[in-house]
Amino acid sequence: MILASLSLFFLAFVASLILTGLARLAAPRIGLIDRPDGFHKLHPRPTPLGGGLAVFLATAGVMGALLAVPNPWGLERYRDWPAVLALLLAGAVIVPLGLVDDRVRLRGQHKLLGQLLAASILVGGGISIDRVEVFGWTIEFGPFAVLFTLFWLVGAINAVNLLDGIDGLAAVVGIILSGTVGVMAAITGHPEVAILALVFTGSLLGFLCFNLPPASIFLGDAGSMLIGLVVGTMAIRGSLKGPGTVLLAAPLALWTIPILDSLAAVLRRKLTGRSIYARDRGHIHHRVLAKLGSGRKALAAIAACCAFTSAAALCSVFLKNDLIALLSSLAIVFILLATGIFGRNEFLLVSDSLCGAARSLTRLLSMPIRAGRTEAGPQGGQWDVLWAGLVESVDEFGLQGISLDLVGRTEEHGYSVTWQRPSPDDLQRCWRMELPLVIRDEPVGRLTLIGNRNGTTAYQDIERVQNLVEAFEARLAALWPQLRPPGCNREASAVAAGVGLLLCQADQGDSTRVVVRKQPK
Questions:
Q1: For residue 48, which phi and psi values (nearest 5 degrees)?
Q2: Considering just the CA atoms, what is the radius of gyration of the chain in Å?
Q3: For 96-112, how does the pLDDT look when each residue is reduced to its tens digit (9 = 90+)?
Q4: What SS3 state is found at 442?
Q5: Within this chain, do residues 133 and 221 fall inside the same structural domain, yes or no?
Q6: Which residue among 291, 325, 345 closes a domain?
Q7: pTM given for the model
Q8: Cα distance between residue 491 and residue 494, in whole Å
C-alpha cells in the first residue's frame, strides 16, 4: 500500500513537471506574462504565467485514471466519483477564470462571481458545513449552512490568492496544507481525501521545481485560486466527524497564516478608505521580506509558521484536543504582533477606529458635521503636512477624489490615505488618473486623481499635473530619507517609471481611465 501510494505521488509529480515545462514555453506566445512594475511586482524580469493550469491538468489526469481502473485503495467510481467530479468541475471553472484574469486583469467583482460559481458547484456536489464542533460544543447553522459553506470556500480561494506574492510561497504553503490535510483525512477515516491530497501535493511539488527563487514560471491567479479551492474543500472533507459536522479547530489552525493575512488586508484597505480589491504592499510576505531582506529567507520563515500551525492541527486531531490547535494559532498571531513583523499597523488602525467611533458618540451633538469629504488616517509616519498640501489641489482641479499610496523600506514608512466627496453619483461618470511617484529614479508610490467627466478635466492640462506631482515629489524627498523599496532594482524601476510622457485613455463603461507615466529625473 505504501509503495502504491508513493507511485501515485511520483506519477503526479512527473506529470506536473512535464506540463509545467510545456506551460513555460507556451505562455509567452499567448501573452501570459507577468511584467514587473517596481511597486507591487518586484521580480527582476518578465516571467511566464500558467503554472496553475499545469497543476490542475496533472491532478485531474491522475485522479481520473485512478478512478477509472481498479486500485489498491478501494476507491470506486460510483461511490467516490461524485465528490471528486464536483471538485474537478469547480477547478475547471476557477482555472480558466484565473487565466483570463492573468491575461486581461478582471475587476474584483467579476472574479468574485466566478469564485461563487465554482464554490456553488461544490455545494451542489454535496460539500456542506451543516454544523461545527469545537471544545465539545456543537453549533448548528440550519438554513445558513449553504451561506457558511460558500463563505468558507470563497474565503479559502482568496486567502491563498492574496498570499501569492513572492517566488515559491503559494506553492510551498499549498504543499504544507495539502500534505497536512492528507494525513488528517487518513486519521479521520477519509481515504479518498487522503489520496486526492497526495496527488495534489505531488503536482504542486512538480511545479515548485520551476518556481523556487528565482522563479522561471508563476502559478498566476489560476494556480493560487486553485490551491485555495482544493485545500479548502479537502479541509472540510478531511475534518468531518459525521455527516455535515466539521471539527472546526483543526481547519482554523491549519489556515492561520492565510486567514490572518486576508483579514489584515481587508481591515487595512477598508480603514484607509480604499477598495478591498485594491492592491498594496502590506501583506505578510512584504513585511517579512522587508525584515529579512531575502526572498528565500522570507519564504522559509512563512513556511515555518505554516508548518508549526499545521503540526498543531494534526496533534489536535490525533489527541482529540481542540485546545492544542487554538493555542498554537494564537501563539503565532501573538508573536507576529509582538515583534512587529506583521499585523501591528492593522491592530492600531482598528484601535484608532474604535476610539474615534467612541469619541464621535460622546461629541455627536456638539461637534459640527464636515460635509463633502471623508478622510482616513495613515498607516505610519508623520505625513499630515504633506497630505494637507496635496488636498489643497482638490478645488483647483475640480476633483471628486484623491488617493495617495506610499511604500517604504519598513512598515513604519508606509502611508495610505484617501479623500472622497460623499456623493456616489458624482463618481459614476468619471476619469481616473494614476501617476507613479518617482524619486531618484526609484518608484516610491502612486497618486490617484478622480474627477467628474462633466467638470474640470485635469487630464487636459498635463503640464499643470506634472508640476503638481514634481512639487509633491520634492516635498516627499525631504521627508523620506529611505527611498528605495525592498526588493526593487533598476530594471523594475525603469518599467514603473516609464520613459517620456505617455497618455493612455481607455473607456470602461461610463468611466474613462487615464494613466500618466513621467520621465524619471
A1: -65, 150
A2: 24
A3: 999 999 988 888 888 99
A4: strand
A5: yes
A6: 345
A7: 0.73
A8: 5
